[in-house]
Amino acid sequence: MPDEPSGIFLGVDFMNKNKWIWMLIVAAVVVGYQKMQQGRQGQAVDAVQTQTQPQTQAEKRPSEQSESKKSQSKQPKSDRQAGQGSAEQILQQAFENQQSDIQVKGAGTVLKTLPDDNQGTRHQRFILKLSSGQTLLVAHNIDLADKIKGLKKGDKVGFYGEYEWSEQGGVLHWTHHDPAGRHTDGWLEHDGRVYQ
Which of 48, 51, 140, 178 could disulfide-link 124, Cβ–Cβ 3.0 to 4.6 Å? Predict the structure, then answer.
């Protein structure tokens, strides 16, 4: 009986017989690694470009706007893109059409204050009622901006932030500055003080 390879030699013989399979596996690993590296370099280039030349959504060409939707940071539609008219009209239309990502400026009356959301990034929360009757949940990031102290029902609050549709009327967020400079800065105004 001829000598049969055993032990460690069995693996080498097996590799020789299936060499093309191993070559495909190695090629797939190499290609995957290259793609991963290209993705990391692309993210680094994006970060450098945003730091050196920040652009507003209105300054971008349509092709750049669609690309920015795919990236992690998103730019909201500008006031003009949301439609003409008052904040109430813009927000009512956005609510009826279930639209989101709309940068809007307006004011409302505090209908109810809610407990702060302390899970993850902390947010001061309250419900604003607009003159149209529509309500908005305001989620104001208090890790990036000061909290409105002493806020109570009936107080008037001005706002500039991003509207997100919800069945209850919508959520207003991005009411603060963006330290990374990748999103339009927002704010809240209460008793003559701006919270950004």
Answer: 140
Percent of residues in the chain assigned helix, strand, coil, to nearest 5: 35, 25, 40
Contacts with 193 (C-beta within 8 Å, 6 or more apart), sequence order? none
Q: Supply the DSSP string of 80-120, one letter for each residue.
A: HHH-SS-HHHHHHHHHHTT---EEEEEEEEEEEEEEEE-SS
Supply the pLDDT for residue 87: 82
Contact 111, 125 (CB under 8 A): no
Three-class SS of residue 133? coil
38-95 confidence digits (pLDDT tens): 655 444 333 333 333 333 333 333 333 333 333 334 444 444 334 445 888 889 899 9
The proportion of the chain whose per-residue pLDDT surpasses 90, expressed as a percent, equals 45
Inter-CA distances, 138 with 72, 135, 170, Å: 22, 9, 9
Asked if residues 94 and 100 have their Cβ atoms less than 8 Å apart, the reply is: yes
Q: What pTM does this model have?
A: 0.58
Task: Find the largest Cα–Cα distance for the chain.
Answer: 98
Nearest by Cα to 125 from 144, 142, 108, 109 = 142
Three-state SS at 23: helix
Separation of alpha carbons 182 and 73, rounded Å: 7
